[in-house]
Amino acid sequence: MSNLKGKHILSVNQFDAGMIKQIFHVADQMAPYAHRKKRTRVLDGAILGNLFFEPSTRTRVSFGTAFNLLGGHVRETAGMANSALSKGESLYDTARVLSSYSDVVAMRHPDSGSVAEFAEGSRVPVINGGDGANEHPTQALLDLYTIEKELHSHGDKIDGMHIAMIGDLKYGRTVHSLSKLLSLYKNIRFTLIAPKELAMPASVMDIIDKAGHQFTIREKLEGNLDADICYQTRIQEERFSSQQEANLYRGKFRLNQQIYTQHFQSKTVIMHPLPRDSRADANELDNDLNLNPNLAIFRQADNGVLVRMALFALTLGVENIISDYDCPVQWYSRKGEQ
Ligand code: CP
């Protein structure tokens, strides 16, 4: 039986190696559904409360898509201004009410710890879709799933890999959650490239250190890096005290084909949680990398659907009966050609 049945998913700290293996095994089973080769009604009648109090494209839509692909129904609220939270309602009261309308809740909120606070009032499992600068556990799982797949395609594995993390490592919650998950693996080398004002928080460094991993800290990208993974991030300008402060770092960590060729191996996998800031003065991941086969950013986003389907299946306890509710796909779909 799943250790996740009926549980909240609030932090990567709750996972061990066995749970990760189980989540990835279930995610693998989801590919035919995500690729529209078949469909399932296993969650027909179930309702996801998809509550996003901070902007999102991928996480919000992929949670909804994942639930729909399992046959479930989605009710959404998007934006703080459209919610009674803006009238002073507490997270606890909101949770008590909305959890009676839903079988599971996915939630994003700008404040660290807010999703855990909501979960205290919820009568159904709550999945953290990002709480301030704190954590983004489902992104970390899909990042790890992607790293495993990409390295496997090169005949490599996560144990012993070298990952370079670049950009805003202070406010970038995805690198916090991913670094914590990587503490479950062995002998990883981290190269952490950020201005000292945007360095990885000490609490995360402590976890990397205690796991026995090696780390190198740099303030800029220089020299040859034999990294297996280059994990680029966006400057999280919404978390700075002023736009003026955020502007100090805009465009400082660009990656384009020429910079990639100069500093990385020809097989280094390029990742980014997205959105990438494509405005000319930021441009942290140039469009000229779009045809580079090592650019994994869209495979990474696609994997988000598989991983989120797996999490819904596991928290709702249907992971072993999904195919009992299979039915054919009636419509033409190019996704079925994958
Ligand atoms: N990666 C990620 O969290 O993207 P969104 O902000 O679009 O959800």
Structure description:
- By secondary structure, this protein is of the alpha/beta class.
- It folds into two domains: 12-135 and 303-327, 3-Layer(aba) Sandwich (Rossmann fold); 137-298, Rossmann fold, CATH 3.40.50.1370.
- It contains eleven helices and eleven strands.
- The chain has helices spanning 17-29, 31-34, 58-69, 91-101, 114-120, 137-153, 173-182, 202-210, 243-247, 257-263, 297-315; strands at residues 39-40, 47-52, 73-78, 104-109, 126-131, 162-166, 189-193, 214-218, 229-232, 269-271, 326-327.
- The strands form three sheets. The protein has a five-stranded parallel sheet with strand order 8-7-6-9-10, with helices on one face.
- α7 (173-182) links the parallel β6 and β7 (189-193).
- The protein is globular, with a radius of gyration of 20 Å.
- The model has no long low-confidence stretch (mean pLDDT 95).
- Bound molecules: phosphoric acid mono(formamide)ester (CP).
- Phosphoric acid mono(formamide)ester binds next to α3.
